[in-house]
Amino acid sequence: MSEEKSQLQDILKRLFAMEKAKDGRFQKRRFDLYGLELLQVTYDQENQDWDILDHRLKKHYHFDDVDLVAIEIYDLLRDVQLTF
To answer: Highest taxon of the source (predicted)?
Structure first.
């Protein structure tokens, strides 16, 4: 259980860093697993909203709450981990 909590905390740290960044309106981060980029997360600082692009399913998810973004990222990555 502590490993899951740690992974979620690591995701939140990255998301909070995106919110605090000062180098542009749009902040983008990749989330990789097993050397493959699975997700791209974009944060729009002006509108304060989030977009997740799931490369596997070619789907976009849109959020306005950082906690929901973290949970979705965790779930999507965990789904891949459990597949292998």
So the answer is: Bacteria
The pLDDT tens digits of the residues spanning 24-57 come to 999 999 999 999 999 999 999 999 999 999 999 9
7-19 exposure pattern, b = at least 16 Cβ within 10 A, e = fewer: bbeebbeebeebe
SS3 8: helix
CA torsion through residues 23, 15, 20, 6, sign? negative
- Contact indicator for 8, 66 with CB cutoff of 8 Å: no
pTM of structure = 0.90
